[in-house]
Amino acid sequence: MLLSSLIYKFYHIKHIMRNLLLLFLVFFVFVSGCTQQAEQKILKSPTEEFPQEQSSSNVLESEISIIKAPEVNDASSESLSEDNSENNQPEEVELTFKQVVWKKRIDAALNATLCADIPKPSYPSSYYQGPLTDTHLHIPSIPDWSPEEDDFPTDQAPEGRFGGPQALLGWNVKMSEIICTLEREGTHDNFAFFPVYEGKISTYQLEIWNRTMQQYPDLFTPFIMSPGNDNEPDGFPTVDAETLEDMLAVYPGLFEGYGEIGLYERENGGSPELPPDSPRLQAIYPLVRQDYLVVYFHLGHGHKEKFEKILSQNPDITFIWHGDQLSVEEVEDILSKYPNVYYGIDEFFGGEREIFERYVGKSKKEYLETMNNKFDIVVDRGVKDWKSLIEQYPDQVLWGTDRGDAVWNYDLEVGQMQVKIARAFIGKLDPAVQEKFAYKNAERLIRGEDATSGNIQGDKSLIKSSNELQSNQ
Ligand SMILES: [Zn+2]
Known about the structure:
- The protein is α/β, with parallel strands linked by helices.
- The protein has helices at residues 7-14, 16-31, 35-42, 46-49, 74-82, 97-110, 175-185, 201-215, 241-250, 279-282, 285-290, 304-313, 328-337, 353-360, 364-373, 375-392, 412-426, 431-447, 460-472, and strands at 64-67, 113-116, 133-138, 189-195, 220-225, 257-262, 294-298, 319-322, 341-345, 397-399.
- Bound molecules: zinc ion.
């Protein structure tokens, strides 16, 4: 499922009144000459405002490593000075109210975390023991509400799309905490869907993703996830080609994938479906080709034929899709016909709706309890549902978690549970396909190799390495 943010809708409706009141208040503060007081409040350090360090006070110092905050680069000062053009002060540039708030959000998103080393978990010998790549990891956005609303209390988080407090980067979860979870749970690479929204916020989001990738180039394979106001009935599941091109041009070569883009009709009155062969997407494929991006879709109902049309029209573009809108027979049919497509398997709920609903929202404690009680049932159901597909098309299937949305989905215990389910499940597959499903297909896909023939398609890492070779000669 696509767990894209609901912030737009939720906040814009629920807090319009509050927004107006706050605007009035801010106006009043300025008019009455109390600007100094206001600034003091805004300039509080990010650590004061976001004191959510890992609860590791009883852990020995030697066991703690610090997940560092990525360095500030030139683009950040550029993006912050843009807003400031009207002030035009050559030195000691004073940031405007808005700039201070956005800078604080960026800093908070990237603040360091104490990350305690934990012993490597050991698994039963029947479990798969090798490397794992999560090919479906949603990264939360920073808050997008207006700077005037920034004192919103973190214990009143907006509700996520599937319930539970929604994760917002720098507000109730930090990038370094997500990284700490990934490093300790033991996934070694992650296809990360980095949200980039339309409007000014994209500058700040892109800066955070760029700094993250500079610091952790091996932990993430970065995808640009750019919905076009998909929470609104007149919105789209993706921005248009022109907007996407502008976003991609900010840090050329930053992204390796485009998605996840959910092409299905949004629940709760959001955007209508967007068929894979729609003019909006047809205008995007040339961009994808030009930038050697992998495409990640969540198809809608009845999209099979239109998707097949796109797969055959674009044999040089690698596509991944997931979701239960197509039947397993339809999935098999597509995999058998097109070597340029992969299917992501991440639904390890064992047909237990109850687990699914807990997983995506409500309560971490209840989720973990239910999972522990039904662990074998869930794994066996996964085997029943997916083993034959994976073994029939071992070069075109990918493991993923589809984590996101709720804060606690980034929690270590939840990450460890996802990894444990995956290792138990993969251990029940034919040994010849285990590594392919766990990480090798993901690795090969990013290298740009065709799924079945091994032909090399366009791929920027190969181009990079051939350039390096040339410059070394
Ligand atoms: Zn998803």
